[in-house]
Design brief:
Elements (H helix, E strand, L loop, with lengths): L4 E7 L6 H10 L4 E6 L6 H4 L1 H5 L3 E5 L8 H13 L5 E4 L4 E4 L6 H5 L7 E9 L12 H4 L2 E2 L10 E5 L4 E5 L3 E4 L15 E3 L2 H10 L13 E3 L10 E5 L4 H10 L6 H8 L4 E2 L7 H13 L2
Parallel strand pairs: 1-2, 1-4, 2-3, 6-13
Antiparallel strand pairs: 4-8, 5-13, 6-8, 7-14, 9-10, 11-12
């Protein structure tokens, strides 16, 4: 039987995080994963080998580095491969966890959107929780403080698409659909993609550091719907993790020049919200089972 919900993601040197990320998403109803390896060197293939051998993960190399257009290639390839294999395909990253806050399995929630070609899901950005160093434990337990729900950066979305109707990705956040159809929010509100001009992006980057000014200095495109709604579908974005983990990641991705400002902007810890902590025991049990049956 074909999977109802699958995920596409690209990973680069994310070996310590992949097992937790896969098993969490299996708990909430994801049945298959299309993963693309962006020239990893930390044993990511070995980390996901148990799921590959079970047929739960399809993995391929990204022939083009992510920073040179590899994301567009991988998303196009995933759409092509998934078109007849899955009803829904979510495009997210390994530092993002997709779920329904009402504890309803994701497939049950998504059945309410089958008339639409896609659904966009808002972020909830989590900060470092004051952690300086990396430590043992699950991401969903270690980081339990986030930005307030309506923070401007939480207007960002990722897409869950019908691969039969999605024609191409528009950057990492949005898709173009057959016949000019539009994706919707969780409230069934149609979403148009708004492109920001280069001068507007530069202005926002300057304004972002002024006191009392709330703006998103990183968005190239944004949704026409500014309201943040996460009652049915939500994407926890662990954008920085601990300071040490963030610095290691930016060094791997050669983005250290942007690291200080990016970290300080995303290190938001105003709201205590351990929304995913109740899943931790289930994730650990699944991981222990896999370790016991290599």
């Amino acid at each position: 039987m074909s999977p109802y919900l699958s995920i596409c993601a690209i990973f680069k040197d994310e070996a310590p995080y992949l097992p937790e990320w896969i098993e969490f998403h299996r708990l909430v109803g994801v049945e298959h994963f299309f993963l693309y390896d962006d020239h990893s060197s930390d044993g990511g293939r070995e980390a996901i080998a148990p799921w590959v051998s079970e047929g739960l993960v399809s993995v391929a190399d990204c022939p083009i580095p992510l920073r040179e257009g590899g994301q567009g290639w991988a998303y196009a390839d995933a759409l092509r491969r998934a078109r007849r294999l899955t009803r829904w395909l979510a495009f997210i990253d390994v530092d993002e966890f997709l779920f329904s806050p009402g504890d309803t399995p994701l497939p049950d929630v998504l059945r309410d959107y089958e008339q639409h070609p896609g659904v966009v899901v808002n972020w909830q950005v989590y900060g470092s929780c004051g952690q300086v160093s990396a430590s043992d434990g699950l991401v969903i337990e270690r980081f339990v403080r986030r930005a307030r729900t309506g923070w401007v950066r939480n207007r960002r979305v990722k897409s869950i698409v019908d691969p039969r109707r999605a024609e191409r990705a528009i950057g990492p956040h949005f898709f173009e659909y057959a016949g000019g159809a539009l994706a919707v929010t969780e409230d069934h509100e149609p979403v148009q993609v708004i492109e920001r001009r280069a001068w507007a992006r530069r202005l926002r980057r300057r304004l972002a550091w002024l006191p009392l000014v709330e703006t998103d200095p990183y968005a190239v495109r944004h949704s026409s719907v500014n309201r943040v709604s996460v009652s049915r579908l939500r994407l926890n974005h662990y954008a920085v993790r601990s300071r040490q983990e963030f610095e290691q990641k930016t060094a791997r991705h050669r983005t250290s020049r942007l690291a200080p400002s990016y970290f300080s902007y995303h290190d938001r810890n105003e709201v205590h919200d351990p929304a995913l902590a109740p899943y931790a025991n289930g994730v650990r049990d699944r991981l222990a089972s896999i370790d016991a049956h290599p």
